[in-house]
Each structure stands twice: as structure tokens, then as C-alpha cells.
Amino acid sequence: MIDRPDLAAMISPLSRALIDAELPVLREHGLSMWAYMVLLALEARPLRTQAALAESIGADKTRIISVLDDLQRRGLIERTPDPADRRARLLSLTDEGRRVRDSAQTGIQAKEERLLSRLPPEDRQGFLNALRTLAALPPDQITNP
């Protein structure tokens, strides 16, 4: 038996608390958590289909439509027909979308810095490195190691 709590038992309460800390920052920027996730995901790959975007952020593609409609109405994203498949829409951030995303992310990361400052510098860097490595794993490598 390993002498530590399960990873999910440690991460889940931390994740909920981090989300609770982010919500006021997102509200200040007029963003829902889903909208923020869309803005973050579009920066990784500026042009994506709506279905690919929904899959990448773990959202149902029908549920994400209203989020995309709102972001487009506000001028934060653009949706253009895919020349290769007119039924699909390519998504991209606008300059305003980048500005809003960057401002929200700065506010969120400022709160995170206060939390991370509780760790000694060497533990902090190790924690961030380990988190990046684990977060980059494809889901099937986590569920079926």
C-alpha cells in the first residue's frame, strides 16, 4: 500500500478551489469557464473546426454552439466556412479575443502565483514541470497506462 492519498483525491478539491478562484476574474471579463477554455484552445491552433474544438476541451459540440455564438457576437472569435468543407466552420481569435484572453489569464495567474508562493522555489518548479508533463498526456495514457 502506498503511503499517500490517491491523485484524484488530492487534485479534485484543489481543482474545484482553483476554479472557484478563477470565476470572479472571468466574470470581470464577461467570460464563462467554457468561453475562456475556447479562447485558450484557439490560441494553441488558430483554425479548427467546431467539432474538433469541442472535443479538445471536452465539451459536447451542440452545447458549445451558444458559447461560440456569444464569442462571435462580441467580436472575440471569427467563424468562417472551411473552403475544403462548406459545412464546417474554421475558428480563429480576433485581436480583441486575444486581448480579453490575455487579460483574464493575467488575472488568473496572479491568483495562482499567490498560491504557488507557498512552495519553496525548487518544489514549485518541480510541481509545475510534473503538472505540465502529466497534463500533456493523451487521456488514454492516463486511463490505460
What does this structure look like?
- This is MarR family winged helix-turn-helix transcriptional regulator.
- It holds the Pfam family MarR_2.
- It comes from Sphaerisporangium corydalis.
- InterPro entries: HTH_MarR-typ (IPR000835), MarR/SlyA-like (IPR039422), WH-like_DNA-bd_sf (IPR036388), WH_DNA-bd_sf (IPR036390).
- Helix 1 crosses helix 5 (about 95-115) and helix 2 (about 35-45) packs across helix 5 (about 95-115).
- It is built from 7 helices and 3 strands, in the order ααβααββααα.
- Strand 2 (about 75-80) and strand 3 (about 85-95) form a beta hairpin.
- It has about 140 residues and is mainly alpha-helical.
- The model has no long low-confidence stretch (mean pLDDT about 90).
- The two termini are about 20 Å apart.
- The protein has a domain at about 15-110: Orthogonal Bundle (Arc Repressor Mutant, subunit A).
- It has helices at about 5-30, 35-45, 50-55, 65-75, 95-115, 120-135, 140-145; strands at about 50, 75-80, 85-95.
- It has a 3-stranded antiparallel beta sheet.
